[in-house]
Write a structure and sequence with these properties.
The chain is an alpha+beta fold. Helices cover 29% and strands 7% of the residues.
Length: 190
């Protein structure tokens, strides 16, 4: 090899890809399952009250006899929307003109996905307060213990979920299950 002090790196070109690298984010699902029918009510307020009544009691009636009147009652569920989230960023007009990429569009897309992830967390954090749980006791194991999901017990678990929801008088139409990647893998292998 020749001993040389050549400096030719100025001739080496640099290239920029036609598009920015894709950012991978969790796919949001809350808006696909949440009931947002009442959101218009929040255009001039921050609280929604949804009342419901107790079940009237059915009794046997005997002709000519007095009827014993049973008490009924009502209550309501309240939803207060008092949290606002923002994912802010700034792109200067000069950068907007000089950047090769549509920087605002790229960062707005990422910001929207991040906000959706926060929404997912807010929605799903309330599911544990629904009062309906499933444990190993519901599928023939020890009550109070967690369930280890497997190919062999998948049908039993989904059957038990249906039974528990039916016993709570939850409508059977439009039921769904949110599953993580590992559970989905097990279901696909079933």
């Amino acid at each position: 090899m020749a001993d040389s002090a050549n400096t030719l790196t100025a001739f080496n070109p640099e290239y920029w890809t036609p598009t920015m690298q894709e950012t991978f984010l969790k796919e949001s699902v809350a808006l696909g399952i949440a009931n947002t029918d009442l959101r218009a009510l929040l255009s001039d307020g921050d609280t929604i009250n949804k009342p419901y009544g107790s079940y009237p009691r059915v009794q046997t009636y005997t002709k000519g006899a007095d009827i014993s009147v049973k008490d009924i009652s009502s209550t309501n569920d309240t939803l207060t929307v008092n949290t606002a989230k923002v994912a802010s960023f700034y792109v200067d007009d000069i950068d907007k003109k000089q950047n090769k990429y549509d920087t605002i569009k790229e960062f707005a897309t990422i910001a929207q996905r991040q906000l959706n992830n926060v929404l997912d967390q807010a929605v799903f954090s309330n599911y544990s307060s629904a009062g309906t749980t499933l444990d190993a006791g519901d599928i023939g194991g020890t009550a109070g213990n967690g369930i280890v999901f497997s190919q062999s017990n998948a049908p039993t678990i989904f059957g038990a979920m249906g039974r528990v929801l039916n016993s709570k008088k939850r409508l059977s139409a439009d039921r769904f299950a949110l599953v993580g990647p590992r559970m989905l893998e097990t279901i696909v292998q079933y």
